[in-house]
Specification:
It is built from 8 helices and 10 strands. By secondary structure, it is of the alpha/beta class. It starts with a helix and ends in a 7-residue tail after the last strand. 41% of the residues are buried. The model has no long low-confidence stretch (mean pLDDT 96).
Amino acid sequence: MMNIREALKINPVIAAIRDTGHLSMALQSDVKIIFILAADIFNISAYIHHIREAGKLSFVHIDFLEGLGKDKKAIEFIAKKIKPDGIITTRSNLIKYAKDCSLYAIQRFFIVDSQSLETCIKTVLNVQSDLIEIMPGIMPQVVKDLSGTMTTPIIAGGLISKQEDVTLMMNSGAIGISTGNTLLWK
């Protein structure tokens, strides 16, 4: 199985799914990575199974996974029983737990002002996530500044609606784009 950086080199667009209909579309698309943004303890294993069968990488947004706590034992359970390739979270403490369990760890940041940007930089330097996701994803100058400031790779996500957005963000320093827009998955 390829790693996340190899997958992003092949196709930098990541399918961000919220329902089973979108999962089917993502499985049939050209994307190599799927972010699961809505699931629960009853369907997450099946999602991961289908994604793995399709030869794609799976990332569970732990903050949106219903039926499990948001603690160390939940991460251990996900790593041992559900077995995604990694997690996405806004919570710094979960990044460390995920890395301890040999999961890729993507930390999501919402950049709404200069203070949240400063917090993002400080957190990235301290937490050492594998990648970060910046939201909203249509902030080329912010991505350019961040990619020039740190070595942690950046994914741009949120409000990416057309091919020009993908190109702009990739040219600004993002290594990947997460989007729920199924037209961009091709």
